[in-house]
Specification:
By secondary structure, this protein is of the alpha+beta class. It has one domain: Calcium-transporting ATPase, cytoplasmic transduction domain A, CATH 2.70.150.10. Strands 1, 2, 3, 4, 5, 6 and 7 form a seven-stranded antiparallel β-sheet that branches. The chain is elongated and about 80 Å long.
Length: 147
């Protein structure tokens, strides 16, 4: 099975007024990311500037419809989720800038991935396999006792 790479280059404003291009793995909380249509969101972010921005969060929610995003400002800071852009979503339309709030395993997508990986490891054995494991252990102990 071929794993799809999550590597991408992103343009950030980091200490200057000029954009620099870095790998998404090098993002840190507080980076100001420039985004454009078609880009995968590399981290959890809050949009601070943008025009006609719409994100599809299919990989996270399963919903194929785009979600309109608005820039955070003094008038809407209490409205909640409409300014957040979640990692693993895709920018379907628009462009702008967003402030990184979480990276890697601390993103919503990272937390979901960790939880589902833990759950799948715990439930790898079926009930029948668990019973057979117990029986095999008992047979092994009987063999050792007889020897």
């Amino acid at each position: 099975m071929v794993m799809k790479s999550s590597k991408q280059e992103v343009q950030v404003y980091r200490g200057t007024l000029e954009k620099i291009t870095i790998d998404n793995d090098d993002l840190v909380v507080g980076d100001l990311v420039a985004f454009d249509k078609g880009m995968n969101v590399p981290a959890d972010m809050i949009m601070v500037e943008g025009m006609d921005v719409e994100c599809t969060e299919t990989e996270l929610t399963g919903e194929p419809d785009g979600v309109k995003k608005i820039a955070l400002d003094m008038d809407n800071y209490q409205d909640g989720l409409m300014c957040t852009m979640l990692a693993k979503s895709q920018i379907a339309d628009g462009q702008g800038k967003a402030l990184v709030t979480a990276v890697g395993t601390y993103t919503v997508a990272g937390i979901i991935s960790e939880k589902t990986a833990e759950d799948s490891e715990v439930s790898k054995m079926t009930p029948l396999q668990q019973k057979l494991e117990v029986m095999a252990d008992k047979i092994g102990w009987v063999g050792i006792y007889c020897a």
